[in-house]
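Q: Predict the assembly, please.
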Amino acid sequence: MGPYLVRRLAAVLPVMAVVATVVFLLIHLIPGDPVSVMLGPDATPTQIEATRQALGLNRPLWEQLVGFYGRVLTGDLGQSYFLDRPVSRALWERAEPTLVLMLCALMVAVAIGVPSGTIAAAHRGSAWDRGLMTVSLLGVCIPGFWLSLNFIYFFAVRLGWLPAAGYVSIFSDPVAALRYMVLPAFSLGFSQSALIARISRSCMLEVLQQDYIRTARAKGLSQGMVTWVHAFRNALVPVVTVIGITTAVLIGGAVVTEIVFNIPGLGRLIISAILRRDYPVVQGVVLVTAAAYVLINLGVDLLYALIDPRIRYD
Amino acid sequence: MTEATVDVLVAAAPAASPSIRPRWLRRLLGNRSVVAGALILLVFIAAALLAGVLSSYNPTRLSPALRLKPPSAAHILGTDEFGRDVWSLVLHGSRISLLVGVSTMLLTSLGGIVVGLVAGYSRRLDIVVMRVMDGLMAFPAILLAIALMAVRGPGVWNVIFALTIVYMPRTAMLIRSTVLSIRELDYIQAARALGREDAAIALRHILPNCVGPLLVQGSFIFAYAILAEAILGFLGVGVPPYVPSWGNVIASGKNVIREAFWVSLFPGVALTLAGLSLNLLGDGLRDLLDPRLRVQ
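A: Predicted assembly structure:
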């Protein structure tokens, strides 16, 4: 496991270098003079020159890039133009709502997706199977942000059961936090559960055709025992991959969900940064989320060994 | 190996993407997913082309007196907060969605073919190109699109540019893996032994075998692009707010959802149906072109 971990970490480094380079180059994609665009039409030439110097944009590109790598490695993501604090601190302050939302949505996705796929596979060809798979196809196609709006309309506006928007920290009032998190977590988790359900069904079907399952049935075990005790664990490895991918996809989905439900997380931070042309914050959010995406995928790879002892990393 | 043998080998190579033949068409029409997906997509294409005929209302004309009218005979899907006819907005919005979807699909295919062929064919460039592709794929797709839109500014072509950058690596990876699996086959070695140039081999013998996977991937990228365009519009960083697009209309519906649910409901239904059609089409094409990947 040790050498494998080192090899996988080494493979992550070039990917992170590309990620950092793309994030660095973003600012150079601004048409015309980036500083004039950032500061707006009212900026004076003195302000433009001062900002250009502060950002180091008057230095050669390669020099700027090396400087950027150095700062990123030391955790310095620059200074926000509008928040009057370092970008890394702004990110840290906004991370909690996004992480809580992602975690809740992941729990919803797994809680719906894995049992749906398993039940559909265990009753292949039945009305259960067709019904669950139709719902999962719709889940793939229904846009999460639109589903969020419909949830708000039905459960908050019409029925008044849950708050329409907002956020309460789980550390200050856990019950209120849960009430505020139900709708965002379900709207974000539902579409992800569809993919998990489809893959779970496919993997389960494959496992249910194995000889040892036939043996288990021949021994007279019940359908439930065969499905959940004998087949489930072996069908779990590819499902964990999808759950890993889902976690990574949730980062992007959380941004949009936060806007709909007015949750003060990283999504709201990046959108307000875009509207205020606060490019260091845009760069910081994109860089940190991409790094999280890469690390989650690495974590999923390492999880395999824990779930399936047959997998060896030599 | 004689030249005749080589020619036989080249001729016996896996069939390049089959041209449209009656048998192929029969198989295509016999697949329920493909037929259902294609029919729904055709309805959207017709709606986009005939938007001006199917609705007599100008989607950009503001009529404050008609603000937030519920669905009625005059406005079958109601009106929005500016008095614009929602049916007309949905019809004209399909033009933007289809334009972004088709353009992104074509550009990602083109870019993916070039990058994938180069990477798959040149071992030296492969490492560099694929690390760049890995890096681009490490970004959550919608976040990279948002960041690119942040620096490029709102606009239809900027959306297409951003989505092409976001989705192209997926196509490039697919083409590369197809090229790698074909590159060492006998008929390619034979073509090489005949003295054919690498570029000619890539275009004449390898590329046609990539058409199947490319079609499947293209239909999914079409679906992702339509959805991503709507998300960008909804977040206010896509096409300008005055342009009738599904994402923009859903965003304006969000502000008035308590009084007028229909403003966001119908563009969302259109978006879901468009996604459904392309997913059905993609699933069906995958089943037809690569039965190994068929979802059981």
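Residues 1-13 of chain B have pLDDT under 50 and may be disordered. The first helix of chain B runs from residue 3 to 11.
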